[in-house]
Amino acid sequence: MYNADDLLATLNPQPTVVTQEIEAFNDAKWEMLAYFNGKPPQPVVAAIHALIPSAAVVQPLLEKLPNEDWLTMSQQALKPVHAGRFYVHTSQNIGNVPAEALPLLIEASQAFGTGGHETTSGCLAMLDALKQQGRRYNLIADIGTGTGLLSFAALRLWPRAYVTASDIDPVGVSVTAKNAAANDVVLGQNPGRLALCVASGTDHEMIQRRAPYDLVIANILAGPLIELAPAFAAIIREGGTLILAGLLNTQTASVIGAYRRLGFRMENRTESGDWPCLNLVKRRKYAWQRPVRSNGRTSQPLGDFGTW
Questions:
Q1: Model-level pTM greater than 0.90?
Q2: How far apart are CA 186 and CA 276, in angstroms?
């Protein structure tokens, strides 16, 4: 009897294993894909299969893929995204940049946030709408930055702002740094520069020190958004703006309710398919109102990574 973990540990090169939902937020419908350089022997297939006890009755399927440059092909398959005045593209699909557009170069990578998902494009359009309304923000935080796209967009719109970007995943922060160089965004803590850190939620000295923020952006998932509501309330100034995305329409009431209890009001909401983008404002306190205090939970639940 072989040990699946021991057998897989001996493989060189190691297979690339990817799990993904077949239906968004449906834990009962998902699949795992394992990519090998050649046809794997039956014991290796069995070892991969053994990693998923719940799929014991499912027959693994083997498929030979053509020898292609998959990275280049994936980048070519990504269409440019036009959201508000932003035009997001890869180096392979720049196309014709529309007049007056604000171009941003985001390559396909291990981090979330190439602009193609409705949550990211919704945030881009929301940010641009706020700029068109004449809003000014001097202190901005992007929590769960992924590729850094939303941070770069904020700097394009408010080029003298202090912008802080964080992600729970160190890979995301590394990708953001590379994308910053590609978009002529300078890293640092001065105005007009991007300050980067690895952090779970708002749990980082730099995030806390630079608060309170005029604008906080969080394009993550509904669960972390609810969990982090007190932490966000603690770092946003009165009258400050909060943009939330990454939630489904069916989760909107729960998310809004969590923030209303902490003194936020809904200012605007946009829809893109099943994915809303929420614009909340922290109410100003008056004598009869009790102050909003954080419950000390400044971190995302384990396993919740980044943005779409």
A1: no
A2: 31
